[in-house]
Amino acid sequence: MQSKMRVQEVLQYIKQSSSGQDEFYQASEEVLSSLLPLLEENSKYLEHNILQRIVVPERSIIFRVNWVDDNGIIQTNVGYRVQFNSAIGPYKGGLRFHPTVNLGIVKFLGFEQIFKNALTGLQIGGAKGGSNFDPKGKSDNEIMRFCQAFMSELYKYIGNQKDVPAGDIGVGAREIGYLFGQYKKLTGEFEGVLTGKGINWGGSLARKEATGYGSVYFAENFLNAYDKSLKDKKCTVSGSGNVAIYTIEKLYEMGAIPISCSDSKGTIYHEKGIDLPKLKVIKEIHHASLEEYADTECQCTYIPNSKYPKDGHAVWDIPCDVAFPSATQNELTLRDAKMLASNGCILINEGANMPTTPKALDFIKQSDMLFSPGKAANAGGVATSQLEMSQNASMTQWSFEEVDNKLRVIMQNIFKTAYDTSVKFDCEGDLVKGANIAGFRKVADSMIEQGAI
Ligand code: NDP
Predict the structure, then answer these.
(1) pTM (two decimals)
(2) Is 128 noted as a catalytic residue in this protein?
(3) What is the model's pLDDT at position 29?
(4) Of 320, 340, 368, the domain-final residue
């Protein structure tokens, strides 16, 4: 009873102190409300006021980014780095460049990152950053100048033992290259201050593939626990960026059939299976819209988003066995979840961060569908980033297979941790509770041991 009241008080505090930060509130509510069984079991977390302490970032840095466009005009964006929690290691978490980025989005992502990083079993704290800069339609030179301007401020706050950013939406290999180059120029140091680096200059093989591959490994572990597997399963995937592409690639390797992908303009449904080489050319080389995929003779269907109501997404109307939301937050609504259930979907496996709305999640919990939360299922990216840091520190480079094998084991362990925790707290298979409790406990215990700092 006392735990429930305390959770409500802290949520009320967030509502008042972080007004308008809806995604941050959503993420906090999901985590805090799932902790009740742990809080009832052990009073130390309330005695040490951990709930209140863990929802406030250790540091939020907000800065102006001025850069010059191709017409010689000075443009201004806002940059963010929220260093949320360093109880178990140096801050670690990606950078997102997208027009929707604001402090609330960065806080939600940073908060999720705390527990995700703890679940990997590695020593990494939680952070996230980014900018409301829109890379779409910008020339390569404009992207470079923006990245240089962004790093000209960020470099003051990061370091290989302090805070190690990586990519996220809108930040891939090209952007990490420009950011790293500017860091090196400003500090004179060649150090592993970013992950997702190029292979020739400190990057890890299999890092690019890791989030998507890891998401598929996680799904396979979950299905295996219920005597099922991905083999021959029809899978819908949303998004067509880094996570979606390598989810599709690994699904093929596991004998599954990925039949969809999407972007902010529309959805491709390709019954025979997505043409992966073509998708890679369109997205990784041309940086173009999926309309280009549909222009060819592929016997696929292209459904523009404009044809869909605001509360629904075409990709989730396609009948499937397993769904992999891998684009962005709140992309799977109550309507979508009902559609997936009525079409016989057995597992929703989150590749993106918080792609499922709270109402959809409530419905899924009451349904027969299994559900993998993103903070567990997509943790393969950050785990492999940590493997990149290890290689940098020991000045070695592991083979693709070596990194991939380590990733496979890490995902198996994350699944086991989340699943075993769900069993221990009498909610077998509820991996939202299992993942949140396991991640929270590790961080909270470390905070208690380190005192009120
Ligand atoms: P990318 O930028 O490579 O791709 C994002 C994809 O999602 C694109 O297809 C994009 O379409 C689509 N998308 C983005 N925003 C929207 C929107 N508002 N509406 C509809 N579609 C949208 O990003 P990633 O693949 O790296 O990231 C995808 C998700 O996975 C994010 O939630 C990210 O936080 C999460 N994640 C990523 C990790 C990584 O290692 N990259 C690690 C862990 C989680 P379009 O191109 O048209 O904008």
Answers:
(1) 0.97
(2) yes
(3) 98
(4) 368
